[in-house]
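ok so for the tutorial part 2 we go from a plain amino acid sequence to predicted structure tokens. step 1 is just haveing the sequence, like this:
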Amino acid sequence: MSTLIRTTETRGIRAPRRAPGIFALGAWRTRFELTQYFRSFDTLVFTFLFPIVMLGLFSVAFGGEGDMQPAPGLPPIPIGQAYLPAMLAAGLLLSGFQNLAIDIAIERSEGILKRLGSTPLSPVSYFLGKIGQVAITGVAQAALILSFAALVLRVPLPTEPEKWATFGWVFVLGIVSSSLLGVAISSVPRTARSATAVVIPIVLVVQFVSGVYLFFYMLPEWLQTAASFLPVKWMAQGMRYVFLPDAYAALEQNGEWNLPGVALALAVWLVIGLVLARLTFRWIRRDA
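step 2 — the prediction. this is what the tokens look like for a chain of 288 residues:
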């Protein structure tokens, strides 16, 4: 009888729900960030579609005289193929660095981060949501750029599996390091209004120095050396290996693609970005 009573009493008692884990909250936050991203028209234009538009403009503006041959002995290639690696690297920078740096700075200035800091959402889940959004939109952007280049501009894409494998690890290292550096630099703007003014000039200078809008071999030697200290230079160099003929390695700074150097440089920048993001991220500014 006592057993029956205890069983009947416990039927009405619900077991306490377990709080969502870090990764579950990160997945939820990723869905939220994606929804916000695609609802923002200016974000779509200036981070998602911008590299595609620039690739089309460069092809139209400089492709009227046919294929380019930067040096005797090199096979001629379409202008679209010459700019494709740079636009892919620019997409990684815009999606990761520029997007997160401005977005987080605005959220901090408007008090959104302060409110999130009082919820069960941990900084790790918040970061997972941001980087998850950047990864998904970055993959979609790269697929759109490649489709546009192949179908509209008639750019020949590589068929060798090893080149696509290289594209994969350059893309992953590039998008993660850009995202972490964006999180770190987001602590610099003091207000939402100044976020764009601080971040976009940095992005433009880095792109010009790294050979995004100007072909890297056209830059003076000292500027090429300076660009070696920037991650975008290595992203673009890895992409050039994938999409340009092998003979074009002669135009690189040391006459070779130097893929181990690309991997090492991007890995170092990933670690630097992780350390800086960890040291600088706060739900609210210390001087607020």
